Amino acid sequence: MARPMIKEAGMASLLLENPYYGYRKPKDQLRSSLKNVSDLFVMGGALILESTVLLRWLEREGYWPLGMTGISMGGYMASLAVTNWPKPIPLIPCLSWSTASSVFTTGVLSKAVNWTELEKQYAINSVYEEEIMKLLGYCGADSFKMGPELVRNADSLEHLFGLSGDDRESVGPKFRTGGEIEAGDGVHQFLSAVNSRGTSLDTLPRRPHANNTMDSAKCCRPSLHRESISFMKGVMDECTHMANFSVPVDTSLIIVVQAKEDAYIPRTGVLSLQEIWPGCEVRYLNGGHISAYLFKQNIFRQAIYDGFNRFCLKYPNLH
């Protein structure tokens, strides 16, 4: 997307590679599959800090105007960074939404989570249920209740990819994808327990005499899987929900681009970005997550140009 922008609008891009991706990926990590839940929080916190440093450096070098954008998890990360920026700035998050909780609990990527291991850890570590759960506050409706409906709607590859007949033929059967995110300030006890004690949730205190086996009474409860998902949703909402971060200085400079049939980023049952950021604009395009990424980047670029034009008209002397 960067090369056409230079030709179309003389707009250059600085690309920040996420922690845990590319050259920043741990040697024992398989592709973009994070090993631990805590890695998501570390990633988000690091990206907020790094984005702030880069924006300040660009300012000192005389570049203007500055803006933030990204696609999918990148769009979410860009949103996080802007919540920490103390000045008006264009923000164009594409194919992302208000929280990561629905992505990992009801969206397509929930099938990639190792729920068996998480259920085991939830069962043998009393701190999850007895202490951490009390610290969690939910934002918006319970998106977990929408899970069965979402799974039914995403059964076919055509719906999952959001492809039309022509698009399916272009992509073919080789396409593979992954990904989505983040971190925030909240539940400091939990973050310190997970992030500073080690890279696995197994480092949290175990129940007495549990050793490596699950508490028999708890592990046999039919609701264990649901409890684990609810716990994951609570942690994700606490640490990744945009409502728990500062509102950007000028929300009129935010243009969100979303796909109508996006099965990766569920929007049902969670607060919308318009509710969290009054004044922002949301543009919907036809298709799903993957088809939009592959075939709609011209719409992303136009949203970026519109966001920058708004900024220049509204703040012509802000350097």
From TrEMBL:
Q: Which Pfam families match?
A: ABHD18
The name of this protein is: Abhydrolase domain containing 18
Organism of provenance: Sparus aurata
UniProt-listed PANTHER family: PROTEIN ABHD18
Point out the coiled-coil segments of this chain: none
